[in-house]
Amino acid sequence: MTLSFVIARKEIRDHLRDTRALLSSAFMALMGPAVVLLVSLSDRAPGQDGARVFVGMLTIFALVSAFAGAIDVAMDSTAGERERRSLIPLLLNPVTRSEIVLGKWIAVTAFALGAVALNSAALVAVLAWAAPALLAARADQIAMWILLGLAPLTALGAAANLFVAVLCRSTKEAHTALRFLAFVPMLIGMFLVFFPSWTGRAWFVLPIVGQQTLIALREPSAPIAASVILALVTLVAAIGPLVGATRVLSRDDILSA
Amino acid sequence: MIEVRNLRKAFGPVRAVSDVSFRASNGRITGILGENGAGKTTTLALICGLLRPDEGWVRVGPDDSSPIERRRRLGALLDHKGLYDRLTARENIAYFGRLQGVLPCLLERRVEDVLARLDLARVADRRVAGFSQGERMKVALGRAIVHSPAHVLLDEPTNGLDIPSVHGLREVLRRMRDSGTCILFSTHVLDEVRALCDNVVIISRGRVVAQGDQADICRLAGCATLEEAFLALTHREVVCS
After folding, report:
1. Which whole-number Å values give the CA distances from A163 to A25, A103, B82, in the listed order?
2. Confidence tier at B166 by pLDDT (50, 70, 90)
3. CB-closest option in B71, B84, B95 to A94
4. ipTM score for this prediction
5. What whole-number distance in Å separates Cα of residue A28 and Cα of residue A62?
6. Record: contact A89-B78, CB cut-off 8 A
7. Which residue in A has a C-alpha nearest to residue B149's C-alpha?
8. B-chain residues within 8 Å CB-CB of A14?
9. Cys staple from A115: which of A14, A29, A87, B122, with CB 3.0 to 4.6 Å?
C-alpha cells in the first residue's frame, strides 16, 4: 500500500508538469458549462421556466467529465509507460502488479476529481447566472449529486480507463479506445434525458444511471440513503476493472513492446 | 551469487529458453554472450522474476527467495530508454530508490552518491527529456543501483552509446566488481566480453553451449580466439584448426 502511494505521488508530480494534458482536461471539464452559458446568452434561451433544460445539458457533460476527466493521465501512465519502455524498469522493482495498478488508479482518480471540481464550480457559476431560482431551490440536491454521485464516479471512471488503456500498446491506440469509452456516460445520460422512466425504482444500484437519475429527481428532499448506496455501489464497481488491469499487467506479453 | 538451473521458458510454440544453467559469482563480471534471439533477455527476465519459468529455478543471494525478494536483491537495467522525461535525473533516481524501499533518511545521500559516481551531478536537476543517450543510460543505471544491490543485471547496456559513454560505463562496472558486486550482463558484442568479463556463458538457441573464462572457452572449442570459438560453438560448420 505504501508503494502504491509512492507510485501515485510520482504520477501526480509527473502529470502536473504535462501542460498540454492539463489544458485538455480543463477544456473538457469546462466545455459543458461553456456551451450552456452560450445557450443562456442566445436569443433562444429558454428562460427561467425552461431552466431544467440547462440542468439536463449540464449533467451529461458533468458525467463525462467525472468518468473521463483524466483520460490523458490514464493513457500516459499505462499505454504510455509501455510505449516509452519505462514499464519494464518499473516492474523490476519489488512492487506487486496490484500495487502498481492501485498507485496509478489513485493518481488518475485525483486528476479526475480535479476535473469534477472545475466542472462543478463552472456549473454552479453558470446556473447562478442563467437560473438563480433553480440553483437556490436545488442547492442541496446539487451538492449531494456532486459529492455522492460524481465524486465516486471518478473512481469508477479511472478504473475503467486504466483497464482499457493497459490493454493498449501505444498512447495512440489507447486514445482511440478511451474516446469510445467516454461515450458510455454520454449515451446513458442522453438516453435518460429522453426516457427518464426507464430507470425504475432501483436506479441507485446502477452507476452512471444512478448519477443521472439522482440529479433529475423532482422530490423536494433528496434521498440521502439511496445516494449513499449509489456512492458505495459505484466505488465497489471500480474493483472489477482494477482486478482486470492487474491481471493484464501480470501477463507475459505485457513485456513485449 | 546468482545461480540458475535448467531454466525453460516457452511463449506458445516458441521455445525462448530450452535449458540454461550457470552460476555468476560475487566480485566477478559474468557475460552472457549470444546471437540476437538466443534467449539472453528472456534469461535475464526469468532471473528478475518478470517471467515465470516453465521449469527450473533461480537463486539470487544465499537462499531461495520469492520474485519480489529477488528484485530487492537485484539492480537490473534491462532498458535504458525508459525514463520519465518530465522528471529530473535526481527525481528519476529517487523514485526508484523509494520503490526499492530505501529509507527516507538515507535516500537523499544515496541519490547524491549515485549522481557523483556516475558523473551526473551537473545535470542532476535538469529534466531528462533533452539528455543524450549516454546521460540517459547513466540515469537508468543510477536508478538500478540506488539501493546498493549486491547483484547487478544489465541487458546489452552499451547499445547505442558513443565511445566515451562505453568507456565510462566499463569503469563504473569494474569499480562495482572490485567492491564485491556480482555483475551479470548480456551482450552480442565480443569486444565487450573481452574488455570486461571474468567469466563467459555462451547461449545459442536457448541453450548454454559453453561457460568458463575466456581461455576455457577457446580451449573447449579448440580455437585461438574468442570470436572463432563463439562461431564454432554456435555454428557447428565452423571448425578451428
Report:
1. 19, 13, 22
2. confident
3. B71
4. 0.91
5. 10
6. yes
7. A93
8. 84, 86-87
9. A29
The residue behind cell 575466456 is B214
Residue type, B81: K
What is the predicted pLDDT for the residue at B103? Answer: 95
pTM of the model: 0.91
User: For the sheet containing B74-77, what is the strand order?
Assistant: B55-60, B2-11, B14-24, B207-212, B199-204, B29-34, B182-187, B151-155, B74-77
Pairing of strands B55-60, B2-11: antiparallel
Residues, chain A, total? Answer: 257
Handedness of CA A42, A43, A49, A50 (dihedral sign): negative
More confident residue, A244 or B194: A244
User: Which residues on adjacent β-strands are paired with residue B186?
Assistant: B32, B155
| Chain A residues lying within 8 Å of B87, measured CB to CB | 10, 13-14
Q: Which residue has the cell 465516486?
A: A152
Q: B206 near B6, Cβ under 8 Å?
A: no
Tell me which residue has cell 482511440: A176
Minimal-distance CA residue of chain B relative to A94: B68
| Grid cell locating A203 | 436506479
Taking contacts as CB-CB distances below 8 angstroms, the residues of chain A near B144 are: 89, 92
Which of B60, B96, B99, B137 is most worth mutating to test chain A (most A CB atoms within 10 A of its CB)?
B99
When pLDDT is cut at 50, 70 and 90, the band that residue B80 belongs to is: low
Cα dihedral A85, A88, A94, A98 sign: positive
pLDDT at A15 over 60: yes
pLDDT band at B125 (very low <50, low <70, confident <90, very high): very high
User: Which residues in A lie closer than 8 A to residue B94 (C-beta atoms)?
Assistant: none
Instruction: Give pLDDT tens digits for A41-53.
Output: 876 666 655 666 7
Å between A207 CA and nearest CA of chain B = 35
Residues of chain A with C-beta less than 8 angstroms from the C-beta of B85: 84
Cβ neighbours, 10 Å, residue B65: 16
pLDDT of A130: 82
Task: Tell me the C-alpha distance between B165 and B170, whole Å.
Answer: 9
